[in-house]
Design a protein that fits this description.
With about 200 residues, the chain is an alpha/beta fold. It has nine helices and five strands, in the order H-H-H-H-H-E-E-H-H-H-E-E-E-H. It has two domains: about 60 residues, Winged helix-like DNA-binding domain superfamily/Winged helix DNA-binding domain (Arc Repressor Mutant, subunit A, Orthogonal Bundle); about 120 residues, 3-Layer(aba) Sandwich (Rossmann fold). Strand 4 and strand 5 form a beta hairpin.
Length: about 200
């Protein structure tokens, strides 16, 4: 498997600035305002960043940026295995059984979609489901699973809206690397599940 390409090797200074801010959870608009560029220019930079770093999702980008920061002295010729991602089942904070099933389905979809990428090994959903929805101890859970990163989330729902909060953390330190909140109206529940999955996976 290919080693991690460092940002200094692959990216320009501007691309590196965009990548670091996007991995930290900033929006296109926020990045544009911070760097004095248009949101459309941010999108263009991100397309180039994804291509150069060989990543396909913002979760993978956040993991990549963190791995680079954690290992600046990595040998330029040594092969590096891609870090493993453990996705805990989304915690449903609604008492309605319908939404509990929805959260399970959403967790499974996110796991399956992220696992499609060869550069992002993911712990199987059924393995994670047996552990529950919240990491008890980031370092211990990460070590037991062989995972460097942990993705977890919470879902709240009422009759009109659904709110999903997702967070990516370093399994060794428990430090949050990326988090985002998604709000959607309740309409077609299957379309909603697809929409939320796509939002978590994609830019």
């Amino acid at each position: 498997m290919n080693r991690i390409v460092t940002t200094s090797e692959a990216l320009s200074d501007r691309e590196r600035a965009v990548a670091e801010r996007f991995a930290a959870g900033m929006t296109y608009r926020e990045i544009g305002e911070a760097l004095f560029i248009a949101p459309s220019t941010v999108r263009t930079h991100l397309a180039a960043i994804y291509e150069k770093l060989g990543v396909r999702s913002k979760v993978a980008l956040a993991m990549h940026i963190n791995a680079i920061a954690a290992a600046p002295a990595m040998s330029p010729n040594g092969p590096e295995a891609s870090p493993m991602l453990a996705i805990f089942p989304i915690e449903c904070l609604s008492a309605d059984e319908q939404w509990r099933r929805f959260a399970d389905g959403l967790s499974s979809d996110i796991t399956v979609d992220l696992a499609r990428y060869a550069d992002l090994p993911v712990v199987a959903f059924h393995t994670m489901k047996a552990l529950g929805s919240r990491p008890a101890d980031f370092a211990a859970d990460g070590k037991a699973l062989g995972a460097a990163y942990i993705l977890s989330g919470q879902l709240r729902a009422d009759g009109r809206r659904v709110r999903l909060t997702m967070e990516l953390a370093d399994a060794q330190t428990g430090v949050s690397l990326w988090s985002e909140r998604f709000d959607r109206p309740v309409e077609d529940i299957f379309a909603l599940q697809d929409s939320l999955t796509e939002s978590v996976i994609n830019v």
